[in-house]
Amino acid sequence: MKIISILGILSGVTAILQFLVLYQNAIEFDDVISGQIANIEKLQEDGEISKQVLQVWKTVFVWIRDVGLPYTRILDLAFGIVEIIVNSCLLYGLTKRKAAAFWPYLIVKILENIAVIIGATLVVVFFFGQGFVALGIIFTLALVLCSSLGIYIWLVVKSLQDDIKKGNTEYEYQLT
Questions:
Q1: Is residue 161 packed enough to be buried (19+ CB in 10 Å), middle (13-18) or exposed (0-12)?
Q2: Are 4 and 67 found together in one domain?
Q3: Domain encompassing residue 3
Q4: Boundary (domain end) residue, out of 48, 70, 96
Q5: Which residue has the higher pLDDT, 158 or 124?
Q6: Which end of the chain has a smaller Cβ tally under 10 Å, C or N?
């Protein structure tokens, strides 16, 4: 379990670094998005894609540029800080055998799992609604796999917390 908390701390550091890198390259990325929109429009003019597909891709690219990127940058920083804090609490709880220190991790991770399930479900509905059935199926499988893994890890941490509360030393080898 210590490995999971250390990986979580590294994930938080990575998210903060990603924020710093993306913030520095924001103007370049905006140019890339504008270039992609122009490429899609040229494909539609050449008759290689339909007007409906053009509209979907333009909507996606414009959303990424105008909404997704600014919020993603801020969320990367916020999630990075939160990941470091909650995984540090978990590591402290594991090391010092303090069951109360598990709560920040458990609360944040269950909320993350719920948010991932809701967000990914909306994306799946979008894919199916736009007629991208294969992408919808692939994304659904990825959603089920990732959500199952996240919930499984949460349950393992919760059961470990319960064992520490009860004073159970049977799992001594897992804590060191």
A1: buried
A2: yes
A3: 1-96
A4: 96
A5: 158
A6: C
